[in-house]
Amino acid sequence: MINSQQHQTLSFLRQRFAEAGIDLHKKLGQNFLIDLNLVRLIADSAELGPEDVVLEVGTGTGSLTAMLAERAAVVVTVEIDEDLYRLASEHLYQLSNVVMLHADALARKNQLNPQMLTEVEKHLAQQPNRRWKLVANLPYQIATPLISNLLALDRPPELMAITIQKELADRITAKPSTKDYGALSIWVQTQCDVELLRVMPPEVFWPRPKVSSAILRIRLNEAKRAQIPDRDFFHQFVRDLFQHRRKFLRSELLGAVKGKLDKPQMDAVLRELRLTGQERAEALSPHQILQLAEAVRRRIQA
Ligand code: SAM
């Protein structure tokens, strides 16, 4: 049986990578957790049970994967690096509920890999009570598009227990009128409840990154999500709205609708919501931004 403990100490990793002739790639976010208690904390945070289908992005050496496999129905784990994929396969092949994909979790830079989604959907379809969760120590360079695009799906993960850069966790959890508040905060907070579970210093990873990280739990909130009638429109709207943070709301909105509404029409939208247009988008709550998006969308369609 796999002993996940032995696979995540600094000495084990060093020796194993040296034996296998593996060079690590900074640009792939290859920073491994060398504190097993934190690996366990990620797994615990996901509240796993036998009905869960787990997607892990970034198999690495497979130590978190093995821990997840002990607790979930199935783990679909994706690794882009051929050497790491091979290394992890050496011990994960024994686990019948682990599906390993040697692939990029993103397709064409900014979209989710359809092969990865098909694999998850296949396992979700096997039982009616199956739940989808993302549990991962994410490669930092793809964390934002991954989280954003998962929340654009009709059926996104019900829970994400993830390690990401602290700076990204700050942007996701940010409150209005703060420097970190923006399109991503709104996109996530209008659909989910978010908890910052732990801040971790660079020392708990090897090789040591320059910045701190955090464990975040993002729980899908179906009641919140049901209030977004057109998710594609809303996603684009929030991104466009925060293109130029220093502008006033009225001109920001006119830019965001790209000529689909004229100034009098936009003023009517603003009046409807009791706004003057002299506010800044960053001062509005996620709920206010959603109301604004809906008023704009309805007027475009009228
Ligand atoms: N799960 C391991 C752990 O906890 O130690 C590894 C985490 S490490 C932060 C991120 C992993 O993601 C690396 O193994 C890296 O090669 C892999 N990776 C980077 N970009 C990827 C991508 N686009 N698709 C899939 N895996 C990727």
Write the layout of secondary structure elements.
Blueprint: H1 10-19, E1 32-33, H2 36-45, E2 52-57, H3 63-71, E3 74-79, H4 82-92, E4 98-102, E5 106-107, E6 111-112, H5 114-124, E7 131-137, H6 143-150, E8 159-165, H7 166-173, H8 183-189, E9 192-200, E10 205-206, E11 213-220, H9 222-225, H10 231-241, H11 249-256, H12 263-272, H13 286-301
Parallel strand pairs: 2-3, 2-7, 3-4, 7-8
Antiparallel strand pairs: 1-10, 5-6, 8-11, 9-11
Helix pairs in contact: 2-3, 8-10, 10-13, 12-13
S-adenosylmethionine binds at residues 28-33, 57-60, 64, 78-81, 84, 104-106, 137, 139, 142.
β-strand number: 11
Please state roughly what percent of the residues sit in beta strands, choosing from under 5%, 5-15%, 15-25%, 25-35%, 35-45% or over 45%: 15-25%
Number of helices: 13
Uncertain spans, ≥5 residues at pLDDT below 50? none
| Unique ligands | S-adenosylmethionine
| Shape designation | elongated
Largest sheet: 7 strands, mixed
Mean pLDDT: 94
Task: Outline the structure in words.
The chain contains 13 helices and eleven strands. A seven-stranded mixed sheet has the order 4-3-2-7-8-11-9, with helices on both faces. The protein has a two-stranded antiparallel sheet with strand order 1-10. The chain is an alpha/beta fold. Helix 8 runs antiparallel to helix 10. The model has no long low-confidence stretch (mean pLDDT 94). The longest helix has 16 residues. The structure holds S-adenosylmethionine (SAM). S-adenosylmethionine binds next to strand 1 and strand 3.
